[in-house]
Amino acid sequence: MRYAVRHTTTYTYDDLVTDSLGVAHLVPRSLPWQDVASYDVQVTPAAGDLEADVDYYGNHVTYFQVTEPHATLVVEGAGEIEVVAPVVPDDARATPWEQLRPLVATGSSVAAPPEAVDFALASALVDHAADAVEYAAASLAPGRAVGEAVGELMHRIHADFDYDRTATTVTSTVKDTMERRAGVCQDFAHLMLACLRAHGLAARYVSGYLATEPPPGKERVVGADASHAWVEVWLGGTTWLALDPTNDQEAGDRYVVVAWGRDYGDVPPLKGVIFTDARRSTMQVSVDVAPLG
């Protein structure tokens, strides 16, 4: 599938901002199953300093500074992406999950690359909550094939937790999600990461977009899509299995990968610092993932 992607964030302040410094994860990754034909990040008012770089995990990062006084700031990433569904070999799915624990050395363990070791550790937003350990144990039975085990865990999270935008915030913890039995895609991704890492598996947080489909007989609503989050589990070598607990499915050609990290804190679409006397501000986000055929 080929998509035209546009992600626009508009900040409005009730007084002038004299200096705005930002960091953006908006440019999708180039991957074996994802080709970035073109992509650009624009800042309005024009940034006096705009630099592109790559972070520790290989994500594209845009740094900018706007020193022109402004009451409105617009940051937009836009371009064209072509995606095919990733292929995960059956033999990788069939590996017993205990053999894929980078921090547990056994005679049958699969050798892990450094990035897999990193994603097996707890992180700031994904700790090894006791409730998550117990919850995951029901799926991670001894000797069970990793594909079957993590797939069932995804199904259970989808069935046991309600999608509710009012249940959590961006600072909510895994414990909060477990207690409220509700959340959004970020929360479900963090919960699944906690479940997997607490049992020694390596898993990473993926930030990107999911191309939505309008109801039958309805036209697409431009700008009504949203940022999305899911999980990738290491299956050995360079193979990762992408799972979306929010929608109870493997990630296919409707998923656009922007960035990955230990948790949301590594890859928010935008973060920064402003200098202003403003007391109030608003943020509006518009995301559009339009199929091009």
Topology of this protein?
Elements: E1 2-24, E2 34-44, E3 49-54, E4 60-66, E5 70-83, H1 90-93, H2 114-118, H3 130-137, H4 146-160, E6 162-163, H5 174-180, E7 182-183, H6 185-198, E8 203-210, E9 227-234, E10 240-244, E11 249-250, E12 255-261, E13 270-276, E14 281-291
Parallel strand pairs: 6-7
Antiparallel strand pairs: 1-4, 1-5, 1-13, 1-14, 2-5, 3-4, 8-9, 8-12, 9-10, 10-11
What does this structure look like?
- Strand 9 (227-234) and strand 10 (240-244) form a beta hairpin.
- The model has no long low-confidence stretch (mean pLDDT 93).
- Strands 1, 2, 3, 4, 5, 13 and 14 form a seven-stranded antiparallel beta sheet that branches.
- Helix 3 (130-137) crosses helix 6 (185-198) and helix 4 (146-160) packs across helix 6.
- The protein is 18% helix and 39% strand.
- The radius of gyration is 20 Å and the shape is globular.
- It has six helices and 14 strands.
- The chain is an alpha+beta fold.
Large-scale geometry: globular
Question: Major sheet, described briefly?
Answer: 7 strands, antiparallel
**Radius of gyration in whole Å, from Cα?**
20 Å
Mean pLDDT, all residues = 93
- Please count the helical segments: 6
Helix/sheet category = alpha+beta
User: What pattern of helices and strands is seen along the backbone?
Assistant: EEEEEHHHHEHEHEEEEEEE
Intertermini distance:
6 Å
Q: Assign a percent range to the helix content.
A: 10-25%
* Total strands: 14
User: Are there runs of 5+ residues with pLDDT below 50, and where?
Assistant: none
- Strand fraction equals 35-45%
